[in-house]
């Protein structure tokens, strides 16, 4: 039996107790726990924010003469960066380097992500330059951290400038485009969001449901239901499957525009495509129905 694959499966589903039980069975059969097994357990433990168990696992490793490798350190750094605990993340970084573990692109990107989300773009840029000095090239995720934060701050000119640079370097992808499109829509700059949608095709990058639903939502918010439906049809024609959120956006737009029949047609279409309506879906339709009845009572 491949225990590492079994542990990974358990941890991925959040079944840490099952993973630990499998470890005990493994040890009972005379199979020693190695860094790979501990790395999987520690990653799963970090995702559950179980500090006590993390410390127990690290002590077990130490008792067996095992030291964390760069995979384990990167998991711990990423977990702390994600929740904004940068002091702890940089403390682990220092210990990692002190023990001779060399940070890789994933390690750098984890710290850069934490710095960007905390608003320390300048420090993140310095860390990115340090990457380059270490002969490590930033990847799509690294650049996405910068673009996401710049867009969040409304600094879309700089975000677009960076995005254009990575397009030339063939590093742009659907995620980086979606970040920018969301940023432009958030600021009400719909025309520029549409230009990016067209630009995706020109650069051979396929839009996804998130791309379309973001722009559809903005059209609905403006009351441009016709444009929203046109985009919806374009999405379907490209074979892109809408999710519940996408349906909710358009159903809401239809209800607000008084197109209740179209809204219920979309609800029925969800069932046909095996997309489960959420409580929000039902609430939107109920409000739409109530609004229609209110208008009819006023007319009478």
Automatic annotation (TrEMBL):
Keyword Ribosomal protein part of the UniProt annotation: no
SUPFAM superfamilies listed in its UniProt record: HCP-like
Keywords from the UniProt entry: Repeat
Pfam families to which the protein is assigned, alphabetical: PPR, PPR_2
Superkingdom as given in the UniProt entry: Eukaryota
PROSITE patterns reported for this sequence: PPR (PS51375)
Residue ranges that the Swiss-Prot or TrEMBL entry lists as coiled coil: none
TM ranges: none
PPR repeats by residue range: 1-33, 34-68, 69-103, 104-138, 173-207, 208-242, 243-277
Listed InterPro entries: PPR_rpt, TPR-like_helical_dom_sf
Family: Belongs to the PPR family. P subfamily.
Name recorded for this polypeptide: Pentatricopeptide repeat-containing protein
Species this protein is from: Gossypium gossypioides (Mexican cotton)
């Amino acid at each position: 039996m491949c225990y590492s694959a079994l542990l990974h499966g358990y941890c991925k589903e959040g079944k840490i107790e099952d993973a630990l039980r499998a470890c005990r069975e493994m040890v009972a059969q005379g199979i020693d726990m190695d860094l790979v097994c501990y790395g999987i357990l520690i990653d799963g433990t970090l995702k559950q924010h179980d500090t006590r168990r993390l410390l127990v696992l690290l002590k077990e490793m130490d008792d067996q003469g095992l030291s964390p490798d760069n995979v384990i350190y990167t998991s711990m750094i990423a977990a702390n960066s994600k929740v904004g605990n940068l002091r702890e993340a940089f403390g682990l970084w220092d210990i990692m380097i002190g023990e001779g573990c060399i940070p890789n692109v994933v390690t750098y990107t984890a710290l850069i992500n934490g710095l960007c989300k905390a608003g320390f773009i300048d420090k993140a840029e310095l860390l990115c330059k340090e990457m380059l000095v270490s002969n490590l090239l930033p990847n799509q995720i690294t650049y996405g951290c910068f673009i996401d934060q710049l867009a969040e701050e409304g600094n879309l000119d700089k975000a677009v400038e960076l995005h254009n640079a990575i397009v030339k370097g063939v590093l742009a992808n659907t995620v980086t485009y979606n970040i920018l499109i969301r940023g432009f829509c958030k600021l009400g700059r719909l025309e520029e969001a549409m230009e990016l949608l067209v630009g995706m095709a020109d650069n051979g990058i396929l839009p996804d449901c998130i791309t379309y639903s973001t722009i559809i939502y903005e059209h609905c918010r403006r009351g441009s239901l016709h444009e929203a439906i046109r985009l919806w049809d374009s999405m379907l024609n490209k074979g892109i499957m809408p999710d519940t959120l996408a349906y909710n956006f358009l159903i809401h737009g239809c209800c607000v525009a008084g197109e209740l029949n179209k809204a219920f047609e979309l609800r029925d279409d969800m069932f046909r495509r095996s997309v489960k309506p959420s409580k929000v879906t039902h609430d939107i339709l109920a409000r739409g129905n109530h609004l229609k009845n209110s208008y009819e009572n006023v007319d009478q």
